[in-house]
Sequence to fold (243 residues):
Amino acid sequence: MGASHWSHPGTRAAFWAGVRDTVAVVPSYLPFALVCGVASVNAGLSTSAAMALPALVFAGSSQAVLTQFIQSSASLWVAILSGCVINLRMAVYSAALSPKVKQFSTGERMLIAAFLIDNSFAFMQKRELANPKDPHLIAYYAGLTAVFWPSWLLFCMVGIFAGNIVPASWQLEFAIPLSFIAILAGSVRSVPMAAAAAVGGLASIFLFALPLKLGLVAACLAGLLAGLVMEKGVQWWTTRKAG
Fold:
């Protein structure tokens, strides 16, 4: 993206709109980020490694899963694979954004993808609904990222340094599944999503004993498959009724 593009008044306005929208919700990151920071220290990561994790991964769910697997002495590759499976939904987000970034170079598209998170995608979808052919959508996304990423990193760092003084007996990691439950409660708004949540949850219970902690990976895949099958079923039923 050239300098001339950023000098356009509409581009600058979209960027600052993203910053303003993000500032309103970024405080909600604090509890989860603190827990992720504390969990990374309790998992045995060095301070430098714990600080690098949120900076490079920038995905709270994957970060939480990684630290939990490391703490349970699972293989590092299994932990990384599990984090990737947790973020499979980003592939769907990327597919939706693909037409909007085709004019950018490969390096620019990779940079855009690196900072894509749930909240950013939701804000972009909302903005696009209000202005379907917004030419400055990526500038708006840049404004979102300019606040989301450093805020997450800062909040995690507070948790990392607090983790050195908070007793492990407090077991703050318990807040991680509670955070996921809170996210899930507000996200399940359709039959396919409910099916994915139910099947994934049950599978995680029945497959918990799989070696190398692969139960979570298998449960994620089972939930994803259930959601896709249910979505196809709903589409078929809707088409049949319309016919």
